[in-house]
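note to self: dont lose this again. the chain is below, predicted strucutre after it. 79 aa total, dont forget to put it in the shared folder this time
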Amino acid sequence: MGHGVAIIVKVTRRGQTTIPLEVRKKLGIKEGDELLVEATKDGVLFRVIPRIEELAGVDSEFGDVEEVKREIEGLREEY
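---
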């Protein structure tokens, strides 16, 4: 893993697992965040989908909330 944290977790009968606290802290993952799950040649990749409020902040490279929503919908349609 590129971030230097490797922890073994179990998958439940329903296909669920827990993202360890250390990893959540390191990546800033909070309850309610959405993750993009991608199957890659190296394994499963989880990416945090930024929250609209964060993307539409003062220092944002995106213009407004509507533009950000379109960006996120575009990401979702790709997967």
